[in-house]
Hints:
Layout: E1 14-16, H1 30-34, H2 45-55, H3 66-73, E2 78-85, E3 89-91, E4 94-95, E5 98-107, E6 116-126, E7 129-132, H4 136-160, E8 162-165, E9 169-172, H5 190-198, H6 203-216, E10 226-229, E11 232-235, H7 245-251
Antiparallel strand pairs: 1-7, 2-5, 3-4, 5-6, 6-7, 8-9, 10-11
Amino acid sequence: MAASSRSDPLDEIRFTGPVEFEGGIHNNSVLYYFATSPFYDKTSNNEVLFQQGLNNPNMMQFLATREAFEGRLRTMSGLEFIVAQEPAETGPGAGTGVWVINKQTRRKGREGEEDEITVHSVYYIVGEHIHMAPSFADIMSARLATISNFLGNVLPLSTSAQTWTPATGRVYNQTPTAATITPSTQPQSQESRHQSDVGAPTARDIEEAFYLHEQYGDQYMDENPITGRPGEFHLSSTGRAKVNLSAAAAAKPLPVKLPTINTKLADSPLTSKPTGKETKSPKTPGGPGKLKRRKSSKAAVTPS
């Protein structure tokens, strides 16, 4: 009997075979056990070959073993159910008990070519229960639904953990630690206890914090904090690096003593009066001197 109603989707059914099935599930009976499930299609080649073996004595040989039955199916074209994987051996005489059966369509190729096989669905038998394997589209749909559900739960929590005001901007509420919790501030509800457990650091959080410290340990967000109120914000510092005065004084070079400069105006040649005793410039030897006027005789001699 099936565990669910047959009106349910096939991939949501877990089928268990009838109790009167004799011999149990083994290599030669696994396909006959699968034929009792709602996953079986009576228009397949399996049903055609089974009916031929019951009504034709010459075809009974193909019903004796699974190898002979599947060998006959490989010579036919059309829909078939075939064992794709047998239970893996985990020890001497001990297997996993998991059978994998494919529902597929076989198209015979030309002579010398392999048959074209199209797999429609996969089933697996675990113990006495038969399940239909989900398709890739069903798996992706379930994964996306799970991710969407988690995101829908996380976004309200992140919104409730922050506040925003024009004066302070966006502020995130910090989870109180065990040292700061007092009997009056201890959470009472299960939801608040869950939120406090979320803030507990893990080994990965500690590793990431150490990595950030190694990369950006000398940078801080509050090196130049803003003070004041809206409309009158001021920086608490100009942002220039502070100078170590003791180190600057030690590194300052000693002053160099320069000669004194006479700044008295009385001694300046521009303001002193001439005394006449200044040194005259020497005459240039051989230079043009002052021409002397030649004296003429007082009486001129008149020629007779």
